[in-house]
Design a protein that fits this description.
Number of helices: 10
CATH architecture of the largest domain: 3-Layer(aba) Sandwich
Keywords: DNA-binding, Phosphoprotein
Order of helices and strands: EHEHEHEHEHEHHHHH
CATH superfamily of the largest domain: Response regulator
Distance between the termini: 49 Å
InterPro entries: CheY-like_superfamily (IPR011006), NreC/VraR/RcsB-like_REC (IPR058245), Sig_transdc_resp-reg_C-effctor (IPR016032), Sig_transdc_resp-reg_receiver (IPR001789), Tscrpt_reg_LuxR_C (IPR000792), WalR-like (IPR039420)
Modified residues (4-aspartylphosphate): 61
Domain HTH luxR-type: 142-207
Structural class: alpha/beta
Protein name: Response regulator transcription factor
Amino acid sequence: MSCLPETSIRIVVADDHPMLREGVQAVIEGEDDMEVVGEAATGREAVELYRELQPDLMLLDIQMPDLDGVAAIRQIRSEFPEARLIVLTTYSGDARAMEALRAGASGYLLKNSLRRELLDAMRSVHNGGKHLNAEVASQIAVHISDQALTFREREILQLVAQGNSNKQIAHRLSLSEDTIKGHMKVIFAKLGASDRTHAVTLAARRGMIAI
């Protein structure tokens, strides 16, 4: 017979790594006011499980198969505006965090801080608050006035990160090489980068591109 109180917080965990889901379960299972009621391994499963269970909280990773975490957040919030969603991620960059928060996340936690922060974050968000990892908050504060890269600029820089030259990128995107060079100048200026490698490094650190 369950000893959980009637007011226990019902939680769904969405992450494509079983070990992470088990780790979250281990943190929660000792708490009388919380229970994990479902698990998902992909973004699409997360959306479907939210529809089915409508939990009090959902914890979800940003990088998941089928549908990434940010897209899943947008979809859930479009159907359930009051949904309370917390991102669990390895990405400490401000760009990825801002993307998730704008999509509707109420919390943003780094996986390496779960044991320290998870329970407080869940209780805070369940009570209507917000929770942002301190390291991520610091990154956001540092870059708050920076100009964001456009979708096209991020697309170009992602191709740079994959080793493509300006000529190859121009061919891939059906643009002129001069247009790509112009975009690169703007990218350097926005990031404060000295060259292509520096730009890729800075953008990856901030979560703008994946390498």
